[in-house]
């Protein structure tokens, strides 16, 4: 006989139902109602949240199982030499896991908030983790045996401690099979505790429910702080009458930034004016297009007797509503706000119901959290305003207003430093914590520091945090795939105060198995996953390169706190900071700053099953003993301060390693690295390694190699490396940072690397060196044009001195490159550059760029991005129709010798960057000739007069382009540079200035266009460019 707990009938009661799994007597047994004090029931809150947490646990488990299923199925392959009985166990577990995923996807598990459901999910998670451990154990054994077979004749090998015997693995598979059956039996015995249909569960309701209530601008009680700049911008966009047609203004940003409050302020001001004949405000979240149209007609019907009645609106289809709305709005000037629109299809239907607007100048304002929806709404004669977070001053003002009652206005205000850091300028978070602090009785209640220390607990349990909690849960739960949820939780591996390098992040996602190199129905590729999170504004770019590609990013504020809570509570990430570590069983371990230096802290932690290890700062010798980690796939030690050569000697026994990034004081990479047959990415840019063993090129899975290194040995004919490369076995795509003196056998072997798509070569040719044949042939082979329609991305970066000019001029066409960077003195543009097919990006660094070079550049008809870095430019005129496809132009000069731009030149230029501290006024640049210009970027050191002149010119331009300021980043702290070259003005050492602060001062506009363009550039990349986008 068992008891089951039903959903509470009231705030102080529970229903306990008696039933027996052996007899079908449940319907005939009485219900016993017991009364409990409110504190035992969580103050009446938390039921739906716990249900939602069950749903999120199930979704994360489903994603994890989908990752390990292909690996489990691969064990049946003959290369693993499994016993027939073990293969039968594997097939059984494959079928079981597929059924589990099907149950999760069908919401059989995730749609219930019962305790039994959560225990069932815990059972299944333990089973899935056990299966993954067994899979990796088998793979480790197979890899070791394969390597040992070549050495047994000459060396007596001792198997590593991580190696399990075949009998041990067979017993483990039998144990897992029993676990699967037992989990199934437990679920069947207690099946009465799972809903069998009927009303949707609380979890389902929460996932489908909007994070905020339907908005009404008349009753919105918002404390508007720091919105003067954005408000003036939106009102100016409404008033602008050029051209005289319908204009759609989209306000986009993450939940809780104040989009609705800002839109309400605009709406209320406009309703008090007589500028528009009709006004309407509708709430679109979770409504069908038909419902939105019906609501719109109801709102517009207050002063239109001809509008049909309520019953007709409820029965009309979309076509009838569109017709009615067109008749209602035709030849009338209207202003409509559509709050929280979430899909492009929703907008397309609404747009089809709007009448043609000729010489009327109606306006529509939409708010959304999704960038692609904002772009779609404003695609034709529209405007996108990207919401910014509040600066420190405005954040403090809003928080203090909410936290401190008026009667304590003369009392010393609380120190908000920790709160401001946690909230990170998000108004909803500031209001939430401020109201919570006041409710707890400030100043006698808890301090700001106390609240921030336990922010995870408050976020999960306190009623005051309910709206914030719902916003965060909604953003996580509505991610369209399990893979995206795992990718988001992986941000918990990184410290909050460090920007995350995008390309390194994508390579780690691949190594973890969250995403695939090629997209599939169940898993996106890494670029698509990143773009999806960017599109939803869940993560934000921190640094952008000159061509608007995202270089670093991070999560912020309460979203980061939510990610940490979720990743830790699901044992997805184990975070060690402040000398605290939670579970004994660890799969992903991240050590932050200098808190993991105590040896005893890890005495009870089993490190043998860790799959991902990242260290930021110092760590104890126990943690750095890599012999303890048997199944590592990701090892990130580039920010480990005390890493030495002795620590990396055991790396070569990490046979399943896929991603390796080193730093610290490492000066050499062991020759035995050739044992890492699964290694995909090797990054030694932040080490002191100057010499690399040629054996690294024998790694069969290696795709990306980063550093600044020479090779130790001359590659001899018939050597193992020569044989490996000459047979076309190399999968290397990125070779970034190879230093050469122009000769050597390896340069000849580069021709065998048929998959190379990105090469960076630093030429250190001795003075008077005449023999550069090997270097010339290597470059010539790499740039050779195969005349294929879709070669894909191919990038070459050359750093050279004066003695290489002859080498560059000796390169012949036809050749193909999509991106070229030349760093050195250029007296003339090498002839092969002019003959390049497919060249879209070109960067030139030189002391002086002559008129001849500039004239030759103007003939590159396919060029889309051009960056010129020099002390000065020769006098040059950009003629009519020159650079006919150029979209972005960046000029970084010491002297303000800018070219003259004729009308008709640069006809499609979108972004213009003028990075010169001595720029004076417009410098004779006539931007009115640039018809498609959307953005101008200036050096932050220009004078206020010059900045004001450019802002005035931008306001007078038909497109009203943004005027942005950039600031240099300390090269020592730059997260972006591929490697450090003292003489190079790093392209990545450019960072967007504090736009939120400048917005509130009215200095510059939001950077929405910049981020919109960078997202669209990434979204349009082909599948063949996925790997190159990771380099």
From TrEMBL:
In this chain, composition skew of type Polar residues spans 199-215
Keyword RNA-binding assigned to the entry: answer is no
One family name in Pfam for this protein:
NB-ARC
Biological process annotations from GO = defense response to other organism
What highest taxon heads this organism's lineage? Eukaryota
Positions of the UniProt region annotated as Disordered: 187-220
Protein name (database record):
NB-ARC domain-containing protein
Q: What is the lineage of its organism?
A: Eukaryota, Viridiplantae, Streptophyta, Embryophyta, Tracheophyta
């Amino acid at each position: 006989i068992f008891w089951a707990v039903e959903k509470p009938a009231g705030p102080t009661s529970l229903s306990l139902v008696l039933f027996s799994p052996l007899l079908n007597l449940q319907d005939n047994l009485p219900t016993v109602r017991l009364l409990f004090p409110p504190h035992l029931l969580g103050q009446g809150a938390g039921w739906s949240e716990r249900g939602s947490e069950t749903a999120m646990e199930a979704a994360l488990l489903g994603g994890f199982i989908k990752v390990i299923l292909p690996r489990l199925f691969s064990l049946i392959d003959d290369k693993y030499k499994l016993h027939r009985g073990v293969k039968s166990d594997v097939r059984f577990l494959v079928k079981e896991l597929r059924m589990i995923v099907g149950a999760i996807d069908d919401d059989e598990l995730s749609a219930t908030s019962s305790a039994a459901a959560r225990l069932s999910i815990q059972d299944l998670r333990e089973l899935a983790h056990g299966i993954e451990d067994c899979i990796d154990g088998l793979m480790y054994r197979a890899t070791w045996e394969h390597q040992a077979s070549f050495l047994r004749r000459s060396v007596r090998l001792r198997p590593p401690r991580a190696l399990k015997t075949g009998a041990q693995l067979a017993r483990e598979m039998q144990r897992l099979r029993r676990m699967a059956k037992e989990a199934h039996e437990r679920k069947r015995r207690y099946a009465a505790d799972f809903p069998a249909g009927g009303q949707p569960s609380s979890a389902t309701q929460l996932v489908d429910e909007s994070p905020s209530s339907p908005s009404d601008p008349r009753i919105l009680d918002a404390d508007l702080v720091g919105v003067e700049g954005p408000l003036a911008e939106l009102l100016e966009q409404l008033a602008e009458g050029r051209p005289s047609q319908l204009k759609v203004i989209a306000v986009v940003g993450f939940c809780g930034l104040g989009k609705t409050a800002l839109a309400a302020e605009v709406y209320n001001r406009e309703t008090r004016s007589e500028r528009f004949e009709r006004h309407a405000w509708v709430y679109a979240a979770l409504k069908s297009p038909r419902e939105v149209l019906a609501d719109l007609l109801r709102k517009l019907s207050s002063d239109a007797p001809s509008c049909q009645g309520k019953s007709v609106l409820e029965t009309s289809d979309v076509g009838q509503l569109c017709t009615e709305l067109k008749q209602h709005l035709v030849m009338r000037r209207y202003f409509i706000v559509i709050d929280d629109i979430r899909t492009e299809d929703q907008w397309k239907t609404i747009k089809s119901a709007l009448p043609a607007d000729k010489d009327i100048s109606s306006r529509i304002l939409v708010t959304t959290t999704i960038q692609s929806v904002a772009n779609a709404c404003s695609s034709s004669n529209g405007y996108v305003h990207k919401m910014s977070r509040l600066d420190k001053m405005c954040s403090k003002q809003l928080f203090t207003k909410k936290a401190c009652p008026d009667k304590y206005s003369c009392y010393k205000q609380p120190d908000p430093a920790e709160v401001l850091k946690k909230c990170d300028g998000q108004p909803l978070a500031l209001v939430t914590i401020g109201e919570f602090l006041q409710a707890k009785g400030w100043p006698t209640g808890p301090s700001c520091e106390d609240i921030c220390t336990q922010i995870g607990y408050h976020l999960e349990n306190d009623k005051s945090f309910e709206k914030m909690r719902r916003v965060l849960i909604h953003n996580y739960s509505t991610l369209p795939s399990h893979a995206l949820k795992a990718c988001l939780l992986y941000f918990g591996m990184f410290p909050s105060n460090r920007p995350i390098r995008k390309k390194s992040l994508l390579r780690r996602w691949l190594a973890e198995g969250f995403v695939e190199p090629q997209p599939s129905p169940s898993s996106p590729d890494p670029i698509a996953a990143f773009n999806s999170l960017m599109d939803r504004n869940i993560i934000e770019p921190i640094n952008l390169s000159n061509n608007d590609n995202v270089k670093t990013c991070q999560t912020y504020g309460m979203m980061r706190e939510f990610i940490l809570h979720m990743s830790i509570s699901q044992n997805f990430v184990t975070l060690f900071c402040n000398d605290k570590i939670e579970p004994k069983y660890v799969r992903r371990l991240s050590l932050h700053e200098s808190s993991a230096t105590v040896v005893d802290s890890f005495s009870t932690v089993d490190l043998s099953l860790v799959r991902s290890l990242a260290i930021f700062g110092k760590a104890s010798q126990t943690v750095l003993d890599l012999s303890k980690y048997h199944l590592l796939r990701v090892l990130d030690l580039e920010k480990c301060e005390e890493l030495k050569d002795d620590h990396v000697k055991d790396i070569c026994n990490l046979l399943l390693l896929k991603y390796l990034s080193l730093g610290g004081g490492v000066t050499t990479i062991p020759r035995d690295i050739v044992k890492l047959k699964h290694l995909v990415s090797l990054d030694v840019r932040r080490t002191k390694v100057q010499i690399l063993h040629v054996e690294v090129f024998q790694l069969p899975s290696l795709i990306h190699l980063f550093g600044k290194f020479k090779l130790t040995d001359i590659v001899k004919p018939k050597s193992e490396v020569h044989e490996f490369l000459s047979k076309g076995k190399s999968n290397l795509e990125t070779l970034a940072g190879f230093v050469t003196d122009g000769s050597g056998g390896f340069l000849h072997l580069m021709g065998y690397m048929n998959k190379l798509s990105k090469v960076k070569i630093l030429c250190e040719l001795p003075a008077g060196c005449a023999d550069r044949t090997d270097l010339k042939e290597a470059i010539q082979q790499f740039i050779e044009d195969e005349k294929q329609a879709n070669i894909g991305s191919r990038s070459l970066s050359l750093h050279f001195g004066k003695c290489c000019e002859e080498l560059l001029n000796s390169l012949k066409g036809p050749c193909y490159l999509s991106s070229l960077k030349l760093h050195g003195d250029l007296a003339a543009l090498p002839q092969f550059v002019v003959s390049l097919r497919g060249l879209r990006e070109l960067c030139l660094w030189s002391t002086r760029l002559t008129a001849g070079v500039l004239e030759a550049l103007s003939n590159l008809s396919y060029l889309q991005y051009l960056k010129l870095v020099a002390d000065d430019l020769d006098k040059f005129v950009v003629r009519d129709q020159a650079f006919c496809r150029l979209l972005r132009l960046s000029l970084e000069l010491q002297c303000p010798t800018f070219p003259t731009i004729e009308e008709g030149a640069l006809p499609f230029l979108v972004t213009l960057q003028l990075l010169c501290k001595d720029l004076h006024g417009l410098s004779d640049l006539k931007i009115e000739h640039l018809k498609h210009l959307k953005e101008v970027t200036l050096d932050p050191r220009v004078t206020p007069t010059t900045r004001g002149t450019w802002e005035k010119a931008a306001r007078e331009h038909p497109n009203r382009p943004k005027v942005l300021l950039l600031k240099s980043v300390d090269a020592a702290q730059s997260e972006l540079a591929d490697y450090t070259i003292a003489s190079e003005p790093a392209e990545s050492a450019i960072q967007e200035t504090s736009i939120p602060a400048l917005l509130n001062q009215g200095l510059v506009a939001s950077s929405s266009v910049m981020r919109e363009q960078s997202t669209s550039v990434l979204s349009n990349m082909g599948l063949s460019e996925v790997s190159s986008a990771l380099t």
